[in-house]
Amino acid sequence: MSRCVTEPRRGRAAHSVAFAMNPLTALVVIAALVAVATLIGVLGRVRSGRVRHASGKRLTAELLGLDAPLGASATIVQFSTVYCGPCRVAERILTPLASEPRGVRYADVDLGRRPQLAGRLGIVQTPTILLLDAAGRIASRIVGVPRAADVAARIEELTEEDHVVA
Amino acid sequence: MSSPETPTRSTKDQQGIDPRAPRFGAGITAALLLLTVFLGLAEGTAPVATVLLAALALLFLWGAAAGIRRHPWGVLYRTLIRPRLKPPAHREDPTPPTFAQGVGFVITALGVVLQLLGVPYAVVVGAALAFVAAFLNAVFGYCLGCQLYLVLVRTGIGGRGRAEA
Lengths: 166, 165
What we know:
By secondary structure, chain A is an alpha+beta fold. Helix content of chain A is 48%, strand content 17%. Chain A is built from 6 helices and 5 strands; from the N terminus they run H-H-E-H-E-H-E-H-E-E-H. A 5-stranded mixed beta sheet of chain A has the order 1-5-4-2-3, covered by helices on one side. The longest helix of chain A has 25 residues, at 23-47. By secondary structure, chain B is mainly α. In chain B, helix 2 (20-41) runs antiparallel to helix 3, helix 2 packs antiparallel against helix 6 (122-140) and helix 3 packs antiparallel against helix 5 (95-116). Chain B is globular. The interface between A and B is large, with 49 and 51 residues.
């Protein structure tokens, strides 16, 4: 009889033990969690803002929904959203690189207004920046906030290529 | 061509927030979320973890509804930390961090509700996910919650223009 009374209690105790850890194990788990988060952050920082060579797919001002033509020698196209803090930082870095006499233009595309572009261009993070050559082909792709010097160097290459062709 | 929206945005920047404020707040939140994960895992303290995560969910809701500037950590930053620092190099639009507070609320509230419905470790998982986001924000300045907006846009749930935001 007493067995019958204690059995459910024992069952419940076994259940709660299965879901609980001793404090030391719990400490190890949270240390691992901090390590994983740090790793994600470090990897993200290493990859973020790198100027990488890209597809060469040709874009037009109409396709991007721009109200002005692409730059004569190069275009910096930034894809942003309203809720993207780093996009404003990227904008501050990139806008001074535009230069009308050199035919380099900067354009900002709000993906909230043109969600279909995110799918078409495979954009999964903001800011994503595409550097287009004189013909509107995607020459480079940057995910994250870039360094001004890196973008300036790539733009220099693109404008030189344009002059060689011309 | 260099964005017709530039004028409105730069005035927004002038009355914007100190970008260090949300990161300071994320640091406090991250520490409390890590404590929640610990309490949720350790023997006998799971109910405390649920209560703590519920409290953190309410703080996220506060930040999302009242705006990041009126969040208690933001007030703490302005009164205690900011007077000891140099003025910020630039100011930021409060919209992205306020949106991220909403994302934090959804994740932590879901953890609490699922736990109360009997899903084991729901509080631990919810707190761990929110911790990673808050930690990345505090330490690396990366806003995971803000990136989620693009996911919503791509799946067709989001997609509002700047003017309506």
